[in-house]
């Protein structure tokens, strides 16, 4: 069965208005938590995801490792769109 990333809660934890960087902590349906970093595009004004890090509260929902993995990198765009929608910020470019 393929993994389906679903964000159930998202919180804006950091915002730097000078350079347009924001960080959102998202909780997924499988209880994983991750931090998504965005930068604001100067021309369009929309946010673009740059990094995603899994916070090590539970084992990874994809590979089941309880240490560093990069599984969520493949789902960064999907998670970013859902996290921005839940926080009420503009769409991803």
Describe the structure.
This protein is mainly β and 93 residues long. The protein is built from one helix and four strands. It has one helix spanning 76-87; strands spanning 7-16, 21-28, 33-40, 47-55. The chain has a four-stranded antiparallel beta sheet with strand order 1-2-3-4. Strand 3 (33-40) and strand 4 form a beta hairpin. The longest helix has 12 residues, at 76-87. It is elongated. The model has no long low-confidence stretch (mean pLDDT 90).
Please supply descriptive tags for the structure shown above:
93 residues, 4-stranded antiparallel sheet, mainly beta, 1 helix
- Measured as a percent range, the helix fraction is 10-25%
The biggest beta sheet, please? Answer: 4 strands, antiparallel
Sheet with most strands: strand arrangement: 1-2-3-4
Shape: elongated
Short description:
The chain is mainly beta and 93 residues long. It is built from 1 helix and 4 strands, in the order ββββα.
